[in-house]
């Protein structure tokens, strides 16, 4: 890609990250309404957390009646960091039996109370013809549109599933968005979006497909790590242009778990790079030039993508690993400086210009600043990491970095 095209791609990603994760939106309300062909009292029993059908979706396992201050304890089916159901303490306000209630979350066993301080959820039921108009609204303070959009579609899905439940009496889990076929479609769309950046020809399409595959393999490594750490429902979601996200089935339990899951994205691909290099060398020796070039591109893309993920940016894998294994801010600063310097040195050896590398360093600094306030604070501190695990993760980080650094240097020698 030319410098101008690269700059456009990087600027687009920075703008999207700022829009999705950082831009201050203030207090916003998401409101959705739908007429459902069911009796108002029946829907009230489903939506009121203490109703006889409150477990219609499987989300609420049990709920205690509110005390004198309108506070109730609700047990949810979502897993906490200990694998047990999350318990939530909620305050109910403006309750009108059969038609209206508002709810605030005081605290739960998963997230810090500060996460819920601006959150308010309201449910309204109004009879309309032979059905009932159900209006759901959620108010919260947002930074970035990602969570705002997520809540919109979550509420939309809830209304759709409530409508189906009212009609059939059955609740169906999941949806089209996380269906494997949908995710394959998003991956294909991601490749098509990247295609023009590599040139609108067959070779450009092949490179876009290779890069998309590299992203999928990286997230597959995170998913495998989640499974090894006991997450029963890990999954991957493709986001066109931005890449993919692996999501665990419960909150993190320890600092070692955070570091291990973060490192396994690049760690999984560290096994792919030597294989791709060996296969490319073999294909070249046998005279299969096209296959050798495609395998070299696979090795180069995998190495460059994964080593870039290891740089010490706040939300990147490298930044997450270093924050867990470094015993203090001075050690974290020194380790971050060393890792970023090593990354820039690899780029220099690979033939990238000094201006490009300086620009890259600036971009990573901006990314770190954009994402450092986007984390969610857990209710309780994560379990500390043992010294032996700290050393093991540091050694693994250096090994994975070295493998991908060699892959970048080898691919640059083959493809330039």
UniProtKB/TrEMBL annotation:
Q: Does the keyword Transcription apply?
A: no
Cofactor dependence is on: Zn(2+)
What's in the keyword line of the UniProt record?
A: Hydrolase, Membrane, Metalloprotease, Protease, Transmembrane, Transmembrane helix, Zinc
Transmembrane ranges, per UniProt, are 6-27, 258-279, 291-313, 325-346, 352-370, 391-413
* GO biological-process terms attached to the record: proteolysis
Domain of life of the native organism: Bacteria
Protein name (Swiss-Prot/TrEMBL): Zn-dependent protease
